[in-house]
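TODO from last week: model Chromatin modification-related protein EAF3.
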Amino acid sequence: MALKTFPVRCLAFHGPMLYEAKTLKIYDPETKTTYVKDAESTSTHSEHSPAIATDEGVPEDLPDDMADKIAYFIHYKGWKATWDEWVSQERVLAFTEENLRTKKRLMQLANDAATKKKMANGGANALAQAAAMAMAAAANGETPNSLKRKDAASKDDHGGRSAKRGRGIDLDLEKEEYYIQKPEVMLTVPDPLKAELVDDWEYITKEKKLITLPRKVTVNDILAAYRDSVLPKRLATSAPNPASSSSSPPPSGGSNTHSTSNANNNDSSSTSKNKSISMFAGSEAEIFDEIINGIRLYFDRGLGNILLYRNERSQYQSIKKKYGENTRMSDIYGPEHLLRLFVSFPALIAQTNMDQQSIAVLREHLEDFLRYLVENRSKLFLNKS
């Protein structure tokens, strides 16, 4: 698909923050073509200019994990050229008033965090919702089937156009407006975990340190421990009470025939209740496991796209080379990166077609998992002091 227009100005994510940037090149994996701005264009004040294909083909400096993705080579305004980098399409937003307001809001949240050493109320939520707004495509379509409720009517209205836009290269204002109009999904992040987020951000970006990998306690270890610890309690507290029987006790003074018949009915009722409890436990466990598997899937799919700071990317590439491309990152990374995913979940969920009932169930489980992290905070997270 030939690129006709070239987005000169854009906004790009660097970590959780948005910065104004200039697009220098765009790589299209479908045609293995690299595009640049037409130098002879006179539209210097336009956000878009005509695009021309180069003879470069696949750029030599294009990261391996972007070889099959639309990628932008950008220059951050006011930064040295040494910071110029290739970024995936999900990290790029159109240069619009709405996105500029998002940029300003993110900056204010970061300033508050730096001065107070913790997020303001709801700060982590607002930061994550804005930061992940344009990145949902990285994991879109990867949620378990029972959590993803496809709307046939929505498919008819948006399916064809959305698919084309997903494959397109232009920064599509209509797509951004569609994201912005999606209903907000609230997820409460406890204050102790907000403090962990701020400590993590300062440790990586300010102190220029990296978390040693593999972590002793990995994401998969945490998910397994959470299941073993919490699921039995949920089943015990949520299961129907077999004692709450609607059948009446056998009346006194009745005939033997009546008593025998009543006893058989009671046996049948008891068997039915046991089956009901068993079915409930199976259904509850199935939902629980599906959500855990969904968390793992989102983490493995989204880590390289939305969960890393810039100075963690070389470590990420080294990990993949050392352990192999097929190694699950949930077996390498730990709670610090998992927590980053959780504060990104509200915006990711908002881009799915889940109905309100499914969202409510998912939110309940996610917030329960966050409470588990708080309870085991000292055992799981690094002491960065």
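Done. The longest strand covers residues 17-28.
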